Amino acid sequence: MRVNDELILFFTVLKWLFIASLIGCLVGFVASGFILFLHYVIEQSNHYQRIFYLLPLSFFLANLLSQFVLKRHLGTDTLIDAINKHYGKLEGSFIPTKVVNVVLILATGGSAGKESPCAQIGAGIGSVCANLFRVDDADRRKMVLCGFCAGFACVFGAPMAGALFGIEVLAVGVIFYDVLLPAFIASLTAYQVSSALGVTFFYYPLTFIPAFGQGFFIQLLAGGLFFGLCAYTLIRAIRQSTAFTNSLPLWRPWKGLLGGLILVGLTLTFSRDYLGLGLNLMEDCIKGLQVSPYAFLLKALFTIITLSISRSGSVITPILFIGATAGSFFSDLVGADQSTFAAIGFVSLLAGTTNTPIASSILAIELFGATVAPYAAVSCVISFLMSGHQSLYASQRLVIPKSEALAAEPGKPIGNLKSSGQPTEIQLPAWLRRIRLFLKR
């Protein structure tokens, strides 16, 4: 019996409408429960102004749990690696084993985010559904990726950006179009479930309309370069700090205790503004309120110490904070509108550190409105290019190099590429090589 291609496609769409909606509902329900619980814990801890004194204890316990109890955990980088290499087959428990650690760190003021547990929840639910339906490897990969994207949608409060981020973060240079529909459906469903359950999201539409006659486009290009350099520096700093921490000849929990003491000292020296999620200060930047010009540097320092010492928490929320405050600093430097460049920095640093310029541009539309979106997209792409072949996620694959002039082997994880500390061989065009040979004569 012969069946038309259109009929096959029709039933394929129906199949993924059902599967993606189911995964989205489950992820939205479970991830919302975690987010609401985490926000409740943070809200209660905020009643105690000196709660950050417990940071050494929480870091000690987090490292103790990681070493002796939570040996098999799934971080975001591990999930990316599993989706890229093993069709989403997850080793170990699908339950986000770092949830306890994340709650400990954020409750006492550690500078970290909440997206990693939500991504784990989503990917784990997708994996369980794949086991129940007994699907093949290709469909398993799609189902795990649906849950992965839905988890990000619950964190961002932006379903389209969350879906694209989950797809785009897998590899640099390609987007898996076959999973776009189920990922969009799962993310949108998870977002709607989260909203219905009372999870609130950051949303601040901008009304400022830039004027090109006042040199705004030049400021925009300079801003993209600045955010790209910030992204590159942050990636390198986190990697080097983590390597240095791992090299210390101390028992891991003692390292946590030491790192907590350092954060307590920094908090007493500067401010509590750089602890925890930092949503209030980030919102002040977007609203155009004045913040410290060095806020982005201090938040980066707090985040680097937290991530390299505690081995817990996530980095996306701190990146958004650093991007917004860096945008505020840049706007003061060039005399531009603070709200606009805080919003542009908010998404541009995310694009540069995670190699997701498309998802970051869509995030600008969903959070800040269509007015600023074209300018944010330009800055995101420049930041993406300026950060080079670097990423916060070492398992992210480099499929297409960012420039033909840079020698890089396609298909490898970014973490396996040649260290940027070594000189890179520049592939010059043929006409430029001829000019170079002529000048050498």
UniProtKB/TrEMBL annotation:
Q: Which residues form a coiled coil?
A: none
Where are the membrane-spanning stretches? 7-39, 51-70, 144-177, 183-204, 216-238, 250-270, 291-309, 315-334, 368-387
SUPFAM superfamilies, alphabetized: Clc chloride channel
Sample GO molecular function, one term: chloride transmembrane transporter activity
The entry's protein name is Cl-channel voltage-gated family protein
Compartments where found: Membrane
Q: Which UniProt keywords apply?
A: Membrane, Transmembrane, Transmembrane helix
